[in-house]
Write a structure and sequence with these properties.
Bound molecules: adenosine-5'-triphosphate, magnesium ion
Order of helices and strands: EEEHEEHEHHHEHEHEEHEHEEHEHH
Helix content: 25-40%
CATH class of the largest domain: Alpha Beta
Mean pLDDT: 90
Low-confidence stretches: none
Strand order of the largest sheet: 6-7-8-3-9-10
Largest sheet: 6 strands, mixed
Strand content: 25-35%
């Protein structure tokens, strides 16, 4: 049931679907809820359906099936009122290079029909929120990548939305600038009690910034929880080790002995590598060596790995997220920025 009124969650999605003309099923019946004040992340590779979902929630495209409510309002039946409640910052940079930061915001204020007498105060307010007060009268072409993105975010805040949608807010930015954007996003939540829905294909971003994440792949939500909980669900640490060549029967006996150790959940092989899943991997490591020694095998190399969000992703989708396509996308984004600059 879709809730209504003040008790409603910030976002409620029930069996939402999108089939594009031509038959591409971009979103295949997803459901989730986002509480007020939450930073919620949609993590997934190219073509997973992240932008499509954001565009349905922000009323830019119509769902093919299912329902969604933002701030208790139906995104189809109440699209106009939904738009007044949300801010949307698209995947592409939307600001105009030829204008100053302030001029971009004035344009945006007019789009949103902010009364003239309120415009200056609103602009000063959002400039302060994204830390651009001092540079607001410089032309955007002289801004760094991070400043442009912050101005983009400021444009999405001018009408004081209670829910902010950020589509790939740090795409193509260097790591330091990405951390800076994270700080501003956290600040919007802590100081302004905003609910934030963001999409990303960066694991570290989802891990560091989001209270909860949904892993989306080919239009389907594969997992949804707090990053720490998702990692815990993998069942433990992983020890990778190799036997020295010629360990033969001794290796087989060692593996058999290890299977009986308390705390060992699973042992498997990937090529030459033996993979042990166990709780408290650091305590298990000496037991691995003991088992080898007792059975006359030698271990050549060993690595202990605690689960990361990458492992969670791999477990749920069978693929690593950091693929070439993601790199290609960053490159495409940088190219767009270069072209905008060259167009002057
Ligand atoms: N307007 C459209 N018409 C037809 N198909 C589309 C359209 N927009 C997106 N698609 C397709 O829908 C699927 C989901 O695309 P979407 O842009 O939502 O993915 P995404 O997760 O945002 O990917 P990215 O990480 O590249 O931004 C893809 O297969 C894409 O090709
Ligand atoms: Mg996208």
């Amino acid at each position: 049931m879709v809730h209504a009124g003040a008790a409603a969650p910030a976002i409620e999605v029930i069996d939402l679907k999108k089939i594009y003309r031509g038959g591409i099923e971009a979103v295949k019946g997803i459901s989730f809820q986002i509480e007020r004040g939450e930073i919620f992340g949609f993590l997934g590779p190219n073509g997973a359906g992240k932008s499509t979902t954001i565009m349905m929630l922000t009323t830019l495209i119509k769902p093919t099936g299912g329902r969604a409510a933002v701030d208790g309002l139906d995104v189809v039946k109440d699209a106009y009122r939904v738009r007044t409640r949300l801010g949307y910052v698209s995947q592409d940079l939307a600001v105009d290079d030829h204008l100053t930061g302030r001029e971009n915001l004035i344009l945006q204020a007019h789009f949103y029909h902010i009364p003239r007498y309120q415009i200056k105060a609103r602009i000063d307010e959002v400039l302060e929120l994204v830390g651009l007060s001092e540079r607001c009268d410089d032309r955007v072409e002289f801004y760094s990548g991070g400043m442009r993105k912050r101005l983009d975010i400021a444009c999405g805040l001018i009408h004081r939305p209670s829910i902010l949608f950020l589509d790939e807010p740090t795409l193509g930015l260097d790591i330091q600038t990405r951390h800076e954007i994270w700080r501003y996003i956290e600040r919007l939540r802590s100081e302004n009690k905003m609910t934030i829905f963001l999409t990303t294909h960066y694991m570290d971003e989802a891990d560091a910034l989001c209270d909860r994440i949904a892993i989306i792949d080919r239009g389907v939500i594969k997992a949804i929880d707090a990053p720490a909980a998702l990692k815990d669900q993998l069942g433990g640490d992983v020890i990778f080790f190799r036997f020295s060549e010629g360990s033969g029967d001794a290796a087989a006996a060692t593996l058999a002995a290890m299977r009986k150790l308390p705390g060992v959940k699973e042992i498997s092989q990937r090529g030459e590598e033996n993979v042990v899943v166990a709780r408290n991997g650091d305590l298990m490591l000496p037991r691995v060596f003991e088992a080898a020694q007792k059975n006359g095998a030698r271990i050549e190399s060993v690595t202990l790995k605690r689960p990361t969000l990458d492992d969670v992703y791999l477990a749920h989708t069978g693929r690593a997220l950091r693929d070439q396509a993601a790199d290609g996308k960053e490159e495409a984004q940088k190219q767009r920025v270069r072209m905008r600059r060259a167009r002057r």
